[in-house]
Structure formats: structure tokens, C-alpha cells
Amino acid sequence: MIALEEAQARVNRDLPVLAPTQVNLADSLGMVLAETVAAAEAIPPFANTAMDGFAIKASDTVGASKTSPVTLPVVGTIAAGSEATTRLSAGEAMRIMTGAPLPPGADAVIMVELTRPAGFDVQLLAQVDVGNHVRPAGDDIQRGAEIMHPGTVLGPGHLGVLASLGRQEVTVYRRPRVGVMSTGDELMEGPEPLKPGQIRDSNRITLLSLLTEAGLQPVDLGLVRDDEDAIETAMRRGAESCDAVLTSGGVSMGDFDFVKAVLTRLGDFTWMQVAIKPAKPLVFGYLDETPIFGLPGNPVSSMVSFELFARPGLRRMMGLLDAERPVVTAVANGGLPRRPDGKTHFQRIILQRDDAGVLVVRSAGGQGSHQLMSMATANALAIVTDGEGVADGGTVEVMYLGSDQSLIAR
Description:
By secondary structure, the chain is α+β, with helices and mostly antiparallel strands. 19% of the residues lie in helices and 32% in strands.
């Protein structure tokens, strides 16, 4: 057996980062920026009001109060999307709506709640300073400023900023197209009654879903029977059409592990027995420069192997600098027992915070590599090193699998 870190290093050693490409802004959410973005214009592009109210000169409000209001004639109205046609003079006011440009001559806005209508005039009920409720041009972004850099993962806010600058396309690292196939004569799909020795294929839909969750582009390569020619055809098709391929099953030491036989013939692959439980067997190599991950067939083993090897590697291919799942320390509630066997165990657990705000974990259920229900219940994996396990109240490192980062962000 080899250490987990050595197996991960072998996988990550030569994985390529995909070439940058231009995509529509609307399609770039979650992708990694591959360019430096400089603002071609200021945001906002003009001084505007943050409030509905009246554009004025601050000097005209000196001494104004509810008991001693200042009365000014209203000489115009400026709606959002329009502009003043005349200059504001001393002793005048213009009605102005949120977002509308400040008229020439004005240096402040008094919000409507601090005014009172008086026929064609307005009474100002408070004194305000220069710049009151005015958003200057460039208050958010100055023209020419570098605002985003390569490696930025584009979120909704980034897309909003780019749209405000008029960008319709953006240069990003492409999402890897990742093919997924299941292999095995024992597998079937659909609701038909199972024949003796058959099981339903759960790995393919699980892996396709994990790829989507990871921000990658999944490609369903189907269910392939235990036939070397069929497996080879499917492998070659996947290698030609995808940036990487995942298989599940057929990578152990048995006489009927056809995936192993085909890959041995087709390319330079590394067959590893990793010192972990579950997910000990792993195959990795390249078919015509396309990385192939051979994951184990047991459902939980397939998922754990994906998390430890395929997910971080594939996310690096799309330019992510931080491709790993977060690891935190938690307290074991009830303990996490195990037996010494020379392996690191990844136990399915439920991670949460107790009433004192401390991260605590408890077992999610059965830990057999065939027991998928506990994987569905779990939101984390406890990293239990070789030995007798973790006692009740002991601490353990935890790989968090959930999407709610607020749980671990303290």
C-alpha cells in the first residue's frame, strides 16, 4: 500500500490547466477568471443622488429647522435616466429621484423626509452639509483601476460589476468536460425487478451529480458491460470527447476486472492500493493525453475516492488555486471507534455546532463501503488516523462536504 499523500501527488503531478477561453458573461458563474479586468469607465459614471429629495446648495440650508424652515422655489424635476436642462442657482431647488444625476450647481441633496411642500416651493426642515446624499462619479470604481485578477472565482457580485462596466464576455479557464461510465455485468438501470446477482447502478448518477456540484461539466458515457472491446470503445470515445474520464468498478485485483485489463493495454497507468478505508484501489493515467480516473465500484468507495483524488485534480484543471475541501477540527460526540489496520479511515459523520458554538461530530450510521445511506446523511468525513479511533470528547480533523460555508466560518 502507498500513503494517501503519495497517491494524491501522483494524480496532481501532470494534470493540465485547460486553456483560457471567452464565454458569455451569463455563463461564467463559478468559473475562474483568466484575465486582468481594468475598468474602462468610472462607476458610477456621474455624480448622482442616493435618495429621493431635492438637489440644492448646502449653503442655502444654513439655520434650517422644523421650527424655522428655509423656503426655496422648485425650478425643475430630474428623474432617474434623465438630466437637468438648466444650472441650479443659489436660492433654488430641483426635485430629484434616486439615481438621477446631480444638476450643475448643486452640491448636496436633502431627502424628501426633511422637506415640506409649500405650493410651488419647498420648505427645508434641516441643515445639511456639502456632499449630503451625493454619490460622486467613481465612488465605487475609478476609471482605469484594476479590479479583478486571474484566479478570481466569479460569483454573482463579480458578474454584476462586469455587467455594470458593459462587459458581455469574459476570459476564463474552461470547465473540464468529464465523462463518467459504469462497468459491470451485475449492473442494471430502471425499475425492472432484479435478477439473481444483479444490482442497480447508483455510481454513475452519483458521480455525474458530484461533478455538477463541483462546477464541472459532466458527460454521461453510459453503462458498459464486462467486455474488453466494449470497454475499450467507450474509453476511446470518452478520451476523444472529454477532458477527463471517470470509471467506477473493475479496478481491483480480481480475475474479472476488465477495466484494469483494457487500461493496461491502452496506456501508461498507475495501479495503486492506497492506505485508506474506504476507497483503497485507484487507477490513474492518460489515454491519448486525457486523464483517466479508475475509481472503485463500491458506492461509498467511489464517492470517497472522487473526493480525495478526482475532485481536487479536476478543479485544478479549471484554474482553481484552492481546489481542496476545507478541513476543520471538531469534537467527537460519542466517539469514532475503529481497529488498527495501517490505514487512515474516512468515516461518514454529521458535523454541526452545539449550543456553545463548538463544532461537534457524530457518526452518520453504518460505515461499510456498500452502505450508501450514511453517505447521503453525512455532510463531512472524519479523518481517523490508524489506531483505536477517537474517544468520546476527543478531537478529530474533519473534511467538510457541505455547501453552507457559514457552518465552519467562525
